[in-house]
């Protein structure tokens, strides 16, 4: 079933502000948001309010939509565009939130022209020109290096320049060649790490799903950029610098709450 969004920002979308207790409660549970300085948090809050007024939230799978769900997703999703602006999320309106992982029908044509249909379990999905789908259960796992919201919003940024390929719409001052060089070198190294880790007890530092293709690598590394920036900068410094230039942020320089460092 699809539920209609009700709450403060739909009753007064043009003027309503996110209530302090709701905002502070969400920020306090997400170390990468709590690390923002006062001005950054103020601007993120304003950006999230704009996002909520512009986008349309619906739910599926019996989930009851709440202000907490919408504000939490908006706050996390707007962090990547804190210095870029809401226009980077243009061209789509819908947000669909599921209570847990959901099934997506897929089809693929093999080399002989035979179409194979199957179902895939997903925690998130970004459709080009269409809605963004999120598992609320997975969204609540944010804070320790896994962030399905930032992952899927990164795909939206990737799609803004055309087909998702790991190269978002770079500003004029950034070199596409430099981005691709850093991206592919890091991606190839990570694919090697994943191959070497298979069949052993050793885990990779980042989600092995990043080895699927350059687009997934960009999305997973965007999660790491905001959630575990020190680890990403140590492992792939060149790509970290490219991400910092694109997002116009340096999360590794932010001071994390003491509770997040324990």
TrEMBL record:
Gene3D superfamilies named among the record's database cross-references: Collagenase (Catalytic Domain) (3.40.390.10), Glucose-regulated metallo-peptidase M90, N-terminal domain (1.10.472.150)
GO cellular component, one term: cytosol
PANTHER family: MTFA PEPTIDASE, PROTEIN MTFA
Database matches in Pfam families: Peptidase_M90 (PF06167)
GO terms for MF: aminopeptidase activity; metallopeptidase activity
Protein name: Mlc titration factor A
